[in-house]
Amino acid sequence: xxxxxxxxxxxxxxxxxxxxxxxxxxxxxxxxxxxxxxxxxxxxxxxxxxxxxxxxxxxxxxxxxxxxxxxxxxxxxxxxxxxxxxxxxxxxxxxxxxxxxxxxxxxxxxxxxxxxxxxxxxxxxxxxxxxxxxxxxxxxxxxxxxxxxxxxxxxxxxxxxxxxxxxxxxxxxxxxxxxxxxxxxxxxxxxxxxxxxxxxxxxxxxxxxxxxxxxxxxxxx
Length: 221
Ligand SMILES: O=C(CO)[C@H](O)[C@H](O)COP(=O)(O)O
Ligand SMILES: [Co+2]
Prior knowledge:
single chain, TIM Barrel, 19% strand, Aldolase_TIM, carbohydrate metabolism, 8 helices, RibuloseP-bd_barrel, D-ribulose-phosphate 3-epimerase activity, 8-stranded parallel sheet, isomerase
């Protein structure tokens, strides 16, 4: 089984203290920093753009996992690469040119992720298995933190892991995002996920080290 990756989503952090918030979760032992980019079109919320990623990159060497919830993400790939993203995840539903978007990310020397909304079938993934380093199975509808995990998405996690295994792509990460906390993380792991995004479960807790440890402890149970 792959080593679990804990990726706090800064969407739930205090944006007025963003640098301190990121510093705190890195010191608390998180693995990646998950950055939610929303454009007000693909999802009904607006968040972070390349300047904020660039500003954080001046201070941190951690892995920046950039989740692009934007229409036509291919327009933004170069800007986020230049800003310091290590991996970029695009939504299957956000562009008719998803294969090209994944190719562009890899041509920039970055890891490419493909995200599937709760209502999206993983069938299309079968044509993209060679082009992904990560599959993000959204466990909530994208747009906001603090939602409850949609239970039907866990069967999709298992299906995606099976497709990857059948294709010999054991190296590909399966990420879950939304509603992950100590009470749900183990189910997601048992379904086949190895990367766990957690926003409110980390940033709504006063002690972030304890919050991250609670997630890891739930995985060990
Ligand atoms: O992509 C996202 C929302 O679209 C966030 O990463 C996700 O919602 C994390 O928040 P929480 O852990 O509080 O559910
Ligand atoms: Co996200």
